Amino acid sequence: MTDNNKQVTKYKRFEQTLEFMKESLPNGSKILDLGTPNDMSEYLINYGYKVDNAYGVDFDLNPEIIAKEGYDAVTMFEVLEHLINPMGILAQVKAPKLFASVPLSLWFAKAYRNKSDEWDQHFHEFEDWQFDWLVEKSGWKILNRAKWVSPVQKIGFRPILRKFTPRYYIIEAER
Fold first, then answer.
1. What CATH number should be reported for the domain holding residue 131?
2. Mind listing the pLDDT tens digit of every residue in the chain (175 residues)?
3. What is the total count of domains within the chain?
4. Global confidence as pTM
5. Which controlled-vocabulary keywords does the entry list (predicted)?
């Protein structure tokens, strides 16, 4: 996949995420985004959201870092699959709204693993019902959900399957 194709795919996901969020989270809302400042954070800021990032600690060992008051929503985009205990962090959120997305478990692809970076690998890849259960068991009520595909510009059996098999799952929840 060329760098240009990766950018197009990335921004397509950003657009889908923004469309999902702006249905119920007004422009100008204050968001605590779980993770380092990134292109998605910048995308949301450019739309008009006020975004702070929570990062720099191991969320499995210090889930209380997310327990900050004064936010309209907390976002967790492709973060929870990296944690050993995602329930710990979900339970600590103080904001009234949660937007979270995860990669779905695909029957034709194993969980992502980067052997050269201990943080860049997936401990979990979820089926939609598993993620719903985790979120609800953490004290949230799911209001809305969506899935989307993530096609790649390669030749082969798995790239063909990625054109119509949903890869990402996003939920909106409230306490």
1. 3.40.50.150
2. 455 555 556 678 899 999 999 999 999 999 999 988 889 999 999 999 999 998 878 888 989 888 999 999 999 998 888 788 999 999 999 999 999 999 887 555 565 555 665 556 656 778 899 999 999 999 999 999 999 876 566 676 555 565 666 778 999 999 9
3. 1
4. 0.84
5. Methyltransferase, Transferase
